[in-house]
Specification:
- The chain is mainly alpha-helical.
- It has two domains: 67 residues, no CATH class; 66 residues, Arc Repressor Mutant, subunit A, CATH 1.10.10.
- It is built from six helices and two strands; from the N terminus they run E-E-H-H-H-H-H-H.
- Helix 5 packs across helix 6.
- It is elongated.
């Protein structure tokens, strides 16, 4: 019989008190308010390998790893520390001003060459960023779609030959 068919079968919530080794019946709201911080600490401790408590014994958790018999060494990070790679939070030191300026010059040369090969290239790029399809772009610039696509492929091939390191 499912719980929908029998309203008498509702879940009963209780809080375990370790000092008295008793369970006290409570409402769902009180249960969640009491256990939410404990569950959070329990999950973080497991994530940092600082808790060896078996998952079926979570109700014994007091949320204080320092006095828990299941506490292990784990990593030395705070439980509030989210593990990040230093590359995520530190700027790239190899991106010095010289490489940035060099990249900017090469980018400007690439755009200049693209303008020579395809005068409508910037407008086409803006239309693509705006979400227009190839057919719609071809209609806007006034050429058949196949001509439009062949011009793009030709420009792409030429730029690939000239700027094979980048393109």
């Amino acid at each position: 019989m499912s719980t929908k068919e029998n309203p008498q079968q509702t879940r009963k919530y209780s809080i375990y008190i370790p000092s008295t080794k008793q369970r006290i019946p409570v409402t769902k709201k009180v249960y969640q308010a009491y256990y939410q911080p404990i569950w959070s600490t329990f999950r973080k401790a497991h994530r940092h390998q600082r808790c060896s408590c078996p998952g079926n014994r979570w109700w014994l958790c007091k949320g204080d790893c320092a006095v828990c018999k299941y506490c292990t060494a784990g990593d030395s990070l705070s439980l509030d520390y989210e593990q990040e790679v230093l590359g995520d939070i530190r700027p790239d030191e190899s991106a010095d001003i010289e490489s940035i300026v060099t990249d900017r010059i090469i980018f400007e040369q690439l755009l200049k060459r693209l303008d020579e090969l395809m005068p409508d290239a910037r407008r086409i790029g803006e239309l693509r960023l705006a979400g227009y399809s190839d057919s719609a772009i071809a209609d806007i610039i006034g050429v058949p779609r196949t001509t439009f696509l062949s011009r793009i492929k030709k420009a792409e091939a030429l730029l690939h030959d000239e700027y094979h390191d980048i393109f």
